[in-house]
């Protein structure tokens, strides 16, 4: 799997930020947690749920998708293949103003998924392309970009634009209990909150987040597939200064301090990462397990202090 650290274009992020700000303003700048039902109502989107066992509904979704000009899905059997084998959990049909969500998605994870589909709608070029795309017209790179932008849009929406960053700055040091508590205020999972914490870092702070398997126990983080890391993401400063650092480099650092227990805080450590110029810097690492994924946050402390013996 790729590192998932690619930056979306600055102009795209600016457009998304402006769209989110406009939505929140039109909703009266609501307090957290944001009611996504209100967002759907504002944007005139109908939110529906589907079951993978409901072939009649899958056939109807497939029919509506074809009517919208998207020929990826042509019948219920193909739709069943997509939602089961390809792991489709949400679908936006712009011409029908409908979002379909898998009814088996846990409630907290559902928030990010709905936000993701809403973002596909308010990002204009996504909507325009989805109105007439087919399996040949969207390149893998284009799809990758669309998903990255929709993920960014979802996080900006469900964390109320800059509201989360403003509240998180009040935390003097990183702590998983604090992260979980603030995330709960906004109605989001600790995993989604970790992404937003990294995304909200000051422009001069190199920091990273990672979602991975447990270094000492098999069976964790099925999203990682056959590898160790499902997602690896950095702050703007990290992506610029430490573009040479990969997910496996960071996973090796975890092995140095992560404990053998399977849940809760798994340990902390000061680890050394070298930047693009080969200069070593110390990072404060902290790792937590929510029972199925291992989450890691790290931020730079400063230059590595070499100890010379005599």
Work out the number of β strands: 8
> Total helix count?
12
Question: Stretches where pLDDT falls below 50 for ≥5 residues?
Answer: 132-137
Give the helix proportion (percent range): 40-55%
Q: What Rg, in angstroms, do the CA atoms define? A: 21 Å
Class derived from helix and strand content: alpha+beta
- H-E string: HHEHHEEHHHHHHEEHHEEE
> How can the largest sheet be summarized?
5 strands, antiparallel
Strand content: 15-25%
Strand order of the largest sheet: 5-4-8-7-6
Task: Provide the number of structural domains.
Answer: 2
What is the distance, rounded to the nearest whole angstrom, between the alpha carbons of the first and last residues? Answer: 45 Å
Short summary:
This protein is an alpha+beta fold. The protein has helices spanning 10-26, 36-42, 55-67, 76-85, 107-122, 124-130, 140-158, 163-168, 176-185, 190-199, 236-241, 247-254; strands at 46-50, 90-93, 98-102, 207-212, 229-234, 264-274, 280-289, 294-303. The chain folds into two domains: 10-158, no CATH class; 202-303, Beta-Lactamase, CATH 3.30.450.
